[in-house]
Amino acid sequence: MAFGATAASAQQATAAPGAADAADAAAEAGSTSGGTARTRKQQLEAVVITGNPLNLRDVVAPVQTLSGDALTLKRGASLGDTLEGLSGVGSTYFGPNSNRPTLRGLDGDRVRMLSNSGASVDASSLSFDHALPVDPLVLTRIEVLRGAAALQYGGNAIGGVVNAMDNRIPRLAQPGLGGTAEARLGGAANERGGAVVLDGGTSAFAWHVDAADRRADDQRVPRFTSEDGVSTHVRNSDSHGRSGAVGGSLLFSQGYAGVSVEDYHNEYGVTVEPDVRIQMQRQRLATAGEWRDPLPGLARVQWQFASSRYKHQEVEGSGAVGTVFQSDGKDGRVEAQHVAIQTPWGPLQGVLGWQWEQSDFSALGEEALVPSTTTRSNAVFLIEQFKSGPWSLQAGARGEKVKVGSTGGDEERFGLPTTRRFSPRSLSLTGGVELGRGFSLSSSLSSSERAPTFYELFANGVHVASGAYEVGDVNLRMERAKAVDLGLQWKQGESRWSVQVYQTRFSNYLALDASGRQIAQPTEDGGVESVPEYVYRGVRARMHGVELEGHQPLPALAGWDLTLGTTLDLVRGTNLDTHEPLPRLAPARASVSLQAQRGPWLIQASLRGAARQDKVPALDTPTAGYGILRVNIARHFDLGGMDAMWYVKLDNLANKLAYSASSVQTIRELTPMPGRSLFAGLQVKF
């Protein structure tokens, strides 16, 4: 069984520049079984979902996708770890367990996390030590969307969107039984994990079942010195996660309607403290469907609704529960696409949509830094696009109503019950033109607004993860940004290159700034310590950067097909009020990779480097540069008529000591990046 040619990332249309390392250029293996249903599924997955409500084959927005063997070879312990290294993508890296993706230097509530295009209810944006309730082992596809098209998901997608997708609500018939089983072992944390995904049904009904389990020890790293002395492990970084889901869909000639139930549990150590653990769980009930050609003038209607209950406990070494975080959320989204309207400039296609979300959040315990809150939002959006010859143009608008309320609390610091109302607006214009000879040009303009979150408004307490006393401002105004993107792509056969430049100006960037004050706080031994105070306030800010990706076939050598991949990304951010750099920005990064493929064999080698990051705020410290060498080896083979693949991953071969500049300063010196490791896995598709 040979490796196929499905692209691992896309930039305008389906161009696929090389990703951060050679694994991202790996392709999904073909299959001779499954018949028409398998073919239709592959065709469906070839279309970008995120930011593409018109289901177009050619999209103007900068989108990266990860699926098939590329995803298998990139999977890490977390979503941030899995995506780390894609051009323009980083992670908050609070040790191996808490890695939330960052896009173009933006994190937290400026990066929208989606689960099958719906809201992901959790507490990951509140604190760096809160993990995402997502298991990469059961994902079939991940899409990363940046630029103006992301704004259809709201103002908190200013940085972009990460959409984690699975097949828990089937969209296509799967006659008989099919699925995937995978087992993994090794790595810097001695991971032992596996997953089973089953899909089946008839022409009228499709069902899905999946289960996954993953255990890991404290992460091994090169020898380093911390407050605990010399060590070769990241303290308190072990974990045990497990998940399961059941789903099913009724299928009919004009669409489908389905439902799924999922359960996720994760227990992991919080590296900032030697004996504190987080016990996390989330249950989610979701329904989704599509009705094609429902009425004259309508091409299709899509809908999805979900109800989630998220809870995690922070447990002390003694077994006592310190703080309990809970979030109950509901969300819904409906999109109606009209049939193409013929105009003098070409066919006009469009979607009118409605989105609704609500969440009730509480943090109870001695380390709670926010009161109980409620958040409600309603939004309508409109997207219209036409294509005429080599030209394409897309315009979008979104209006929201957001209400954020605090119930106050028994503690005086949380004050009286308070409610704030906001009306964010977003506008975007995106265009593209095919220049000939494989070249195409894309550009976008956008204006967006983001309502402050509950913690930006109401925080008032010590945040252990950041080592600061954080204070919100109930009078904050909306965050406002104007952005411009310009991209140039070239595609000729299997050769693909792209470069993207961008700039975003914030007139009211909601920053967490040091006030210069010290707040006295009691310690466990009865003493008093001083904690620096940080206050949320609106400032003027500017972010700009460049992203380059390339994927270039080379002449074959001794029967091996060779492919060169390269990436480069650079982001700069400045607080224009203080003229200091914005915190936790990744340095300039570059990678070069070589992939060799012959029949069922695939060998990949990549070198990824990061420059020294010395453009930091006054209270932060520079981070040294590094270079990481990786090698992947994989082979497809037939196992009793089933498509199987074994793989071996060697990471950080030189055992380089490296730190992440995007980690919060209080944890950076405690959590070096993984050391030299060997990882092996076996995947079987049937």
Automatic annotation (TrEMBL):
Domain of life: Bacteria
Protein name: TonB-dependent receptor
A single MF term (Gene Ontology): siderophore uptake transmembrane transporter activity
Domain annotation TonB-dependent receptor plug: ranges: 56-161
Major site of localization recorded for this protein: membrane
GO annotation (BP), single: siderophore transmembrane transport
Localisation per UniProt entry: Cell outer membrane
UniProt key word Transport: yes
Domain TonB-dependent receptor-like beta-barrel: 275-637
InterPro entries: Beta-barrel_TonB, Beta-barrel_TonB_sf, Plug_dom, Plug_dom_sf, TonB-dep_rcpt-like
Keywords: Cell outer membrane, Membrane, Receptor, TonB box, Transmembrane, Transmembrane beta strand, Transport
A single Gene Ontology CC term: cell outer membrane
A Pfam family recorded for this sequence: Plug
Membrane topology: Multi-pass membrane protein
Family as reported in the entry's similarity comment: Belongs to the TonB-dependent receptor family.
